[in-house]
């Protein structure tokens, strides 16, 4: 009776080399693929340069204090239709309750998990203190609604609110 080791091929240096190259080649190939997918799908940064953003931090604090001192009452309503279009309406009033006119409002719908899906919303003044705009092809889910109000090239209002669109 022949033993099992007599019938099998002997383990040679070439076989060990082929097994090691196959194993590590597979591991390295999977790692390269996963890195490529991670980098291309979610960059993970809010700003390109943290240093540059930090230089403007004091200006942002001063702008927030000025905005708070104005005590504007800005209310936004967003509604997503069955076609996927989202209508954004903003009602803006000053501290005494008078409608704000002549301020240029802009909106932006930002996807928290994927910045590539962000969409600008041009808000036009349709009445005194009432601004409205439409964004096409908005997917359901969580979005951040960013509103900016400018006058004479100077930002007077900024807000960012999380909304859930169905």
Care to give the gist of this entry?
With 166 residues, the protein is α+β, with helices and mostly antiparallel strands.
Written overview of the protein:
There is one protein chain. The longest helix has 29 residues, at 13-41. A hairpin with a 2-residue loop joins strand 7 (141-151) and strand 8. It contains four helices and eight strands; from the N terminus they run H-H-H-H-E-E-E-E-E-E-E-E. The protein has helices spanning 4-7, 13-41, 50-55, 57-70, and strands at 73-80, 86-93, 104-110, 119-122, 124-127, 130-135, 141-151, 154-165. With 166 residues, the chain is α+β, with helices and mostly antiparallel strands. The strands form two sheets. It has a four-stranded antiparallel beta sheet with strand order 1-2-6-5, with no helix packed on it. It has a four-stranded antiparallel beta sheet with strand order 4-3-7-8. The mean pLDDT is 90. Pfam families: FixH (PF05751). InterPro entries: FixH (IPR008620), FixH_proteobacterial (IPR018037).
- What is the quaternary state of this protein? single chain
Kindly state the number of beta strands: 8
Main sheet specs: 4 strands, antiparallel
Amount of beta strand: 35-45%
Q: Order of strands across the widest beta sheet?
A: 1-2-6-5
SSE-based structural type: alpha+beta
**Helix coverage percent of residues?**
25-40%
Average residue pLDDT: 90
Protein name: FixH family protein
Pfam family, one: FixH
């Amino acid at each position: 009776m022949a033993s099992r080791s007599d019938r099998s091929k002997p383990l040679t240096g070439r076989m060990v080399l082929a097994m090691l190259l196959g194993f590590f080649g597979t591991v390295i190939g999977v790692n390269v693929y996963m890195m490529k997918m991670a980098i291309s799908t979610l960059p993970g940064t809010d700003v390109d340069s943290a240093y540059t953003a930090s230089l403007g931090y004091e200006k942002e604090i001063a702008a927030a204090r000025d905005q708070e001192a104005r005590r504007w009452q800005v209310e936004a309503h967003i509604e997503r239709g069955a076609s996927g279009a989202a209508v954004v309406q903003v009602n803006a009033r000053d501290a005494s309750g008078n409608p704000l006119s002549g301020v240029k409002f802009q909106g932006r719908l930002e996807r928290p998990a994927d910045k590539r899906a962000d969409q600008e919303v041009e808000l036009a003044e349709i009445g005194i203190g009432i601004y409205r705009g439409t964004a096409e092809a908005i997917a359901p889910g969580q979005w951040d609604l960013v509103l900016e109000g400018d006058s004479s090239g100077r930002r007077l209002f900024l807000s960012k609110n999380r909304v859930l669109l169905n």
